């Protein structure tokens, strides 16, 4: 019988290839012990990332949600007290997304046990010859959304004569409107994700994403030195999207950050209850320049939110936190439409928010491609109108990262490559499309 010492002497010496394989195996085992591996890593915990983490964790995927700031911070696009939900779009591919999203909002509310979505009619107004407003009516009809078209003579029966229309204007009334409480909604989806077993980490700024040569997945590196390994990754970082993607891949996604201002005005004393959801007052939008939108009095009793869809082009680190445009056109609009029922002399309150705007104001929902293939999915460029669709966008992103496809929505309009064919992106069928980048 050979002694252990003799056995060692006559054992075959590993070849260089075997040594390399053994070394890699040891490194992999060491790495697997030191870095936890997730099925899906979601970067960015605004409404889109939080909805995605909820959906992936709901499907039993080991999920990690990373946020560069505190959770529920005010530095991005998912904070504040109200967002409009409406199904009235000139583009006919958004209404079906809104309707699917409405169902998902209700499902989430039922799970959490409180409300974040408060329903009321939606009222769109503008000149009767507005191509964009006519496209809204056509889009609703294509998507089987009942609409009522009214003129100034029937305004009294509809909304107690609280809104005035010029002679050549019309109003479009639909029942799919309402107000969503954004900070509360983001918190809801984060809580539901945790209940599903997701892991959440804030103050975790991601500085690099690369292919993991050891696991074949994705390696995510934070500024503080921490590393996270995932089989798949979803990037939903809002106004930081272009910078992060460009730095890690060289790919330029034309998403421009923009600082916008939310504005609140005082309702005339004695009329405060008239402008509430309880009284049936609608969310509203005006299809003329400037594009004005608003919500009923809800978060601040006695005040009504009336703002311009637009703002100042800037980087998210270069915000003024002050009104970004002259308020004179907005004051004039309020005086014409609400007369003396709303004090248009000066706003009572302003709040800063960020948009991330694409040239065509359509979303970007796609695989990043390149060396990442289908392992990294991006969701961005929501252009100031995406919050309402957060639940369906989260479901789409989770479908893409888990199944490699989605059956909920046709993504043709949201592909990155659309900008290769035309730098302006999707062509619109109307020439008076409102723009957020005033």
Automatic annotation (TrEMBL):
<feature type="domain" description="FAD dependent oxidoreductase">
    <location>
        <begin position="39"/>
        <end position="400"/>
    </location>
</feature>
<dbReference type="InterPro" id="IPR045170">
    <property type="entry name" value="MTOX"/>
</dbReference>
<dbReference type="Pfam" id="PF01266">
    <property type="entry name" value="DAO"/>
</dbReference>
<dbReference type="GO" id="GO:0016491">
    <property type="term" value="F:oxidoreductase activity"/>
</dbReference>
<keyword id="KW-0285">Flavoprotein</keyword>
<dbReference type="InterPro" id="IPR036188">
    <property type="entry name" value="FAD/NAD-bd_sf"/>
</dbReference>
<keyword id="KW-0274">FAD</keyword>
<comment type="similarity">
    <text>Belongs to the MSOX/MTOX family.</text>
</comment>
<dbReference type="InterPro" id="IPR006076">
    <property type="entry name" value="FAD-dep_OxRdtase"/>
</dbReference>
<protein>
    <recommendedName>
        <fullName>FAD dependent oxidoreductase domain-containing protein</fullName>
    </recommendedName>
</protein>
<keyword id="KW-0560">Oxidoreductase</keyword>
<feature type="region of interest" description="Disordered">
    <location>
        <begin position="1"/>
        <end position="30"/>
    </location>
</feature>
